[in-house]
Every structure is written in structure tokens, then in C-alpha cells.
Write a sequence for this structure.
């Protein structure tokens, strides 16, 4: 194993296999709807090239592969076994945001195949299915998780009627890619008779925590729930020169007081994040006191109770501030998504695998949604985060460190081997 | 005089002449570029109808009238005199903002003509020139005061090359209206050999102060100076879910802290107003921490020293807040317009005329720019504000109270008579 993963001449802590993972991710980043950047949405034409490259690799690893009716790429490794045995699922998504980096999603699929390569044809008492989900980002149809929902048999047929901005429906997109929407029910693990041992997703952290901790990887114990609201502060637009300070009902000043309160309240609760990411004022003229300010609110925590309590307190603060200033405020709930807790025995197993590499064990909650959030409804699930240099994601500057990929490979191999003794 | 201005059956404190002022203003509001609202920009076609209506009235009052090459409407009253004597100027502007009310500007012209009507042909030792400026709002060419600048001989010929959004230049607009741009230098008071006693402008307050004081009118002692800046807070855009509160550089949170500081500092200084009227965030997505926030700043005070000191302190606060949060802030000066102080002897004369009506004397500074600001460069100038119900202006709901118009007429007549004894 050590010989496979480190070789004289590679970067400190790197390995040829880790370097190959990065090279394949970068090559796939070239498969794009745009010439100038990486944009690869659900079943867009460049997805054919992604499938071809990965299936060629799978074929070389003696894996059976297919693309299901939802566009998910699936490859099964049975080693010297007979196939059809309990199955460890490893995967992530193949699609990207517009102007994306080279690692979000695809890294989890490529790392999975690199692990199969590292197994070198070894016999295991279970199969390993590598899955590249067709859709996670929600870009093309403003609705995420189309691939993983089909994979666990929770793809609502109404989703076929979603229409993208270009007028194409999900159903048409599937047909245009050369697939048959009628086959979607047959995509599910249960229809396919798969008995899953669990689902493991490797993913870049997309945040600054591991860099801050100077740690290459962390186990993920859950994915935070989200509350999203839209708020409107209603004051009185008025002339900026003729209205004394004492006679104003400035909607932006009220929103500003509230934004600081959002920040203060989030800082006061461990693990809570709260963000005002959108703000617009009306009439938005330099010489007019804002009569209205519209703001978004995004609140996340691993505990649903903490999150809901915090969101309520933040809305109450908005009402209190508006009232004290003689304004009105209205709010509407846009999203209330519960947290997902990872399977504790898989998380412990991952933590032991991290410890086995000699590294300090860190366990984070994920602040972003992932396919594992959907998979967890049907299968024991866990994730391993890789450090994101600069905390950067969803941008071309998104990166991974070769040595961190090597650690992830070592942790993944230890995790797989540990399941052997369990089975 | 009392008989002229109040008649049994008119509204409390009103009069037929005051009612006529309001009726004429409302009739003129119908002369618009739009069917559904009042919009009348510099030398737009409906301006012909305004000129026609007012010149018909002037003609009935034995006034000589003309439209000058800058589109200003001018009518001269000599009573039983011979003309060519020292001249009192009374006026305001004929143009409007888009979707305007019926009184901003036009009221000052109509009130001037009503005063001539109230004089009833009386002989005075001076002429009275009523002027309706063609342009004050800066709507059509994004440049205000085109009419009054020509009137005082400060119309820079380069202004003829300004081009509106529809591709028409000032020069073309003047020609299209049937006027000759070459005549602009001859529009000036000095070219015309006018020896002005002073300039008096009646205008709605466009603010809530007189309503708050329960007073119909006030003398205006000056027009505040303005500082306008554009500020940009530069933080770091990041994922709203994956970036802990402690590792954020949220540009909107910094801007919010600064906006509250702007409000606090303005409240602490008598007569100071400071407004953040525009704010935009980048990337402006609900799930992304704002990486940049761009804001406008508008600071006004009658004392230039107070204004400049306040603007500096507000910019310093922005730098302090950004620095404490690990952000950068940049600012650029957009406008630095000095205050204009009204002629103190004319202001005192107006205050005495207010007192003569038996009302409490209030004196305000104007928070908005007016033609008087330009006239003051060449002629002793003063203004009388009329109460704005609800403080509303630049909106269809803009109003005046008939009784307040009647007070303004009485004050104006007293003011004119008082000049008789001076001359």
C-alpha cells in the first residue's frame, strides 16, 4: 500500500495516484459548455465526454459500467468475487456550477475510481459501486439532487415537467441525451436489488475550517439544516436634503441595524451561521431616503432546534427594530430544510481510519448540501472532507493539495479494508 | 387687499385668487409628455401649451411677454409706469421630474402672476419680471439649471453639446422647439440691461418641517451645500454555509455598521442631514456572504465648514470599521457643492412681511437645490417656502393648502409694497 501511494520524486506527501486524481479532475474540467470556463450542467453535451473518460478507466479496472435513465454513471467492482453481493457505494456528482472549479463533485468520483485502482484487483467480500450523480447543483432546472433522488427511488415524476430557462423540460433533456425517462423508476437501489453496506462521499470542504486547523481531512458528522427567509423593511422614501434626521423612516438604516443584530446573534451561538447575502433598496437613488429595503436571510445549524430558535429570534429582532423606528417589516419563509445526521457507526469507522494514518482526527458538520444528504434517507451515509485551500469553492481558483488527496486515499483504503473484517 | 384675497364661501383662510393659483397649477399638470402622469422635461412639446396658457394670462394683465432662446418664459409688468426701470424678479421653473406633482416649480411662476393680478394695475416705482425657467430638474440632459444659467449669463456653450438618452443634443432640442441657440448670450440680465432689485422664489418646501411646525410659510435663509461620495467596502465573498462567523469578511455587515454610524453622526449635529440612498451588494446571492458593498453618501448643511468636517468624519468611520473587520474601503468624491446664503436684507424684508400677516416667523434653510441658488450668483435672492402636506414632493400626491397659498400671496404683496418705500 505504501509503495502504491508514495514514490520517490513525487511532491512531499504526494503520490503518483494522488497526482493522477488531480490530473483527471483537471482534464474533466475541460469538458464544458463554455470555451472560457468550466460549466457542465445536468445532461449537457460535455457530460458524454465525462462518461466516456470514466467508463474507459472503469473498463480497465474490470468494472461493469452503465449510465442509468437519470444520467447517473455507475461502475461496479467485484474484484475476484462473483458480483451481486452486498455493496459499498462511493460517489459524488458530475455536474458543476457556472464558471466552476475542477474538484467540487467530480473529485469524489475520481477518488472512488483511484481507490479501486489502489485495490489492484484484490478480492473483497463485497462489491463496490462507484456512482457519478448526474445532477446536484440545481443549476439547469433550479432544482438540485435530480440524480441522487432517482438513485434512491425518490424522483417524483412531476420533476420531469420542470422547464429550464431555454424552454427544455427535464423529460426532453433526458431524451436529448439519448436516455429513456420511462426507465427512471428502475434506477433505484431497491429496483436494482442492491443491498448497500453504506454510502461514502469524498468532497472538498468548500470552507476555511480545515485550512485553519492545518488538517488535510475530516470526517463529517452531518449536514446542517437551513432556514431561508425573505424580509422587507417598509419605511418612507423622502428627499435626502429636506427631511430632517428626526423625521425619517429610513428603511436601509433599519435593515442595517438588523444586519448587525443577525451577525451578533450568530456569533453568540456555537456552530450557528446566519447570512444576509442579498440586499436591495428602493428607490435606490443617492438623494432619496430609502423607502424600502429587501433582504435575504440564511440560517444554518446541525441542530434543527437551535436553528429554528435562532431564526425566530432574528425575525423578532427585525420586528423590534422596525417598530422602534416606526417602520413595518414583513417576512416570508423560503426554505426550511432539516439537518441530516450521518450514520454514527460509519463516522466512527472513518475517524478510526483517519487515526490509522497517524493524523489528528477532526470531525466537522457540513454547511453545504451534498448528495450524501439525499442518500442518507435510504442508506447509512458518511463523508470525508478534503481541505479547500483558501476556503475557495465554486470558482476557478478552487483547489486541492496532492498530499491531502493522498491522505484521503489512505483513509479510504483503510475504511474499505475495515469493512472486510466487519462483513 | 383683504377683499381681494378672502371672500365669503371660500375655504377657511382661502380666497378665490388662491384657489385660482391651485386650479392653474393643476391645469398645467395636464400638459405632459405622458398620458397617465405629469412629466414635462426641458423644451418638451407640452411646454408650448404651458407658455400659451401663461402668456394669455400675462397679456390680460397688460404684461409684455416673450420666450428667450433658452426657453425661459418672461413677462414684464410695468403697471402705469414706463418700463425699463429697476426690476423685481419673481419666478421658478416650468419643468418637472418624471411622474411629478402639480406644484414643484410651476407654483412659483403662477403665484408671481397672481401677485400681478392682485396689484390690479397699480403703479409701482419699479418693474416686475415674472420668469418661468425652462429647466431646473436635470432630467432630460442629466444636468440641472439650464434655464437659470442662461438667464444670468453663465450658460457654458459646451452645454449645447450635451446629449440626452434619445440622442438629441441641447442645441437640437432648442432648435426643435423653434428657438435659436445663437440667441443664448442675449438671454442674460446684463445683455438685456436689466437692473435687478432682487429675485424672489416661491416654492413648496418639499419636506416635513413646516407641517411639523404647523406653519404655512417660512423665509429661506440659504440653500445647504452638498457633499456626495461613492464608497465601496471590499471583503471576501464566501459560502454562507461553510464559512464560520469568525472567519468572515462580510462587506454588507461592514456597510451596515457604517450606515448606523452615518445616522448617529448626522443626528448629533444640528441641521446636518446624511443619507445612504443607494446600496448594492456583490454577488447578491442568498447563500453567498457579500464580498463587496457599494454605497452612496449624501451630506448637507448650510455651513460648508460643518458639512466638510462631517463628511470627513463619516469617511474616517468607514475606514475605521473596515479596518477593524479586516476589509478595505475605497471612496470617491462625486459632488462638492458649496452652500448658498440668501441675501440677508431680502430675508429680513420677507420675515417682516410674514410678521405683518400676524403669523409666527419661521426661517429655514433649504435642503434641496433651487433656481435661487443660481440667481444668487448675480442678484440678491430670497425664497419663501410653502408647507408641503405630508412632506411629499416629486410624486403625484404633492399638494399645497389653499389657505397657505393665500398667506403666501399676502406675504408677497406686503414684500412688493415694502420695496416701494425702499425705492
Amino acid at each position: 500500500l505504501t509503495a502504491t501511494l508514495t514514490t520517490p520524486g513525487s511532491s512531499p506527501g504526494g503520490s503518483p495516484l494522488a497526482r493522477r486524481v488531480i490530473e483527471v479532475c483537471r482534464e474533466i474540467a475541460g469538458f464544458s459548455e463554455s470555451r472560457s470556463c468550466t460549466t457542465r450542467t445536468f445532461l449537457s453535451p460535455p457530460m458524454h465526454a465525462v462518461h466516456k473518460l470514466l467508463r474507459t478507466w472503469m473498463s480497465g479496472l474490470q468494472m461493469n459500467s452503465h449510465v442509468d435513465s437519470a444520467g447517473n454513471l455507475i461502475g461496479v467492482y467485484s474484484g475476484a468475487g462473483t458480483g451481486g453481493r452486498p455493496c459499498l457505494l462511493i460517489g459524488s456528482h458530475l455536474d458543476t456550477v457556472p464558471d466552476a472549479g475542477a474538484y467540487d463533485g467530480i473529485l469524489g468520483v475520481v477518488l472512488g475510481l483511484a481507490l479501486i485502482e489502489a485495490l489492484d484487483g484484490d478480492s473483497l467480500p463485497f462489491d463496490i459501486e462507484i456512482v457519478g450523480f448526474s445532477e446536484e447543483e440545481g443549476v439547469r432546472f433550479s432544482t438540485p439532487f435530480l440524480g441522487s433522488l432517482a438513485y434512491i427511488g425518490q424522483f417524483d415524476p412531476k420533476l420531469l415537467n420542470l422547464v429550464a430557462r431555454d424552454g427544455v423540460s427535464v423529460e426532453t433533456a433526458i431524451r436529448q441525451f439519448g436516455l429513456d425517462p420511462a426507465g427512471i423508476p428502475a434506477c433505484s437501489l431497491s429496483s436494482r436489488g442492491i443491498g448497500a453496506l453504506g454510502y461514502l462521499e469524498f468532497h472538498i470542504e468548500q470552507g476555511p475550517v480545515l485550512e485553519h486547523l492545518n488538517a488535510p481531512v475530516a470526517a463529517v458528522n452531518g449536514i446542517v439544516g437551513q432556514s431561508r427567509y425573505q424580509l422587507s423593511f417598509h419605511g418612507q422614501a423622502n428627499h435626502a436634503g429636506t427631511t430632517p434626521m428626526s423625521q425619517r423612516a429610513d428603511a436601509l438604516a433599519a435593515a442595517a441595524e438588523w444586519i448587525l443584530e443577525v451577525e451578533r446573534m450568530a456569533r453568540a451561538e456555537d456552530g450557528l451561521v446566519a447570512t444576509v447575502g442579498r440586499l436591495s433598496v428602493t428607490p435606490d437613488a443617492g438623494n432619496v431616503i430609502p423607502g424600502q429595503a429587501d433582504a435575504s436571510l440564511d440560517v444554518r445549524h446541525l441542530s434543527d432546534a437551535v436553528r429554528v430558535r435562532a431564526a425566530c429570534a432574528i425575525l423578532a429582532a427585525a420586528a423590534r427594530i422596525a417598530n422602534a423606528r416606526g417602520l413595518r417589516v414583513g417576512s416570508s419563509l423560503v426554505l426550511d430544510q432539516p439537518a441530516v445526521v450521518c450514520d454514527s457507526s460509519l463516522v466512527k469507522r472513518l475517524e478510526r481510519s483517519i487515526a490509522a494514518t497517524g493524523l489528528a482526527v477532526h470531525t466537522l458538520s457540513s454547511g453545504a448540501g451534498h448528495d450524501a444528504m439525499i442518500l442518507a434517507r435510504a442508506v447509512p451515509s458518511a463523508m470525508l472532507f478534503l481541505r479547500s485551500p483558501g476556503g475557495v469553492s465554486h470558482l476557478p481558483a478552487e483547489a486541492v493539495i496532492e498530499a491531502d488527496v493522498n491522505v484521503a486515499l489512505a483513509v479510504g483504503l483503510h475504511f474499505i479494508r475495515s469493512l472486510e473484517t466487519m462483513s
Notes: Chain B touches chain A through 58 residues (CB under 8 Å).
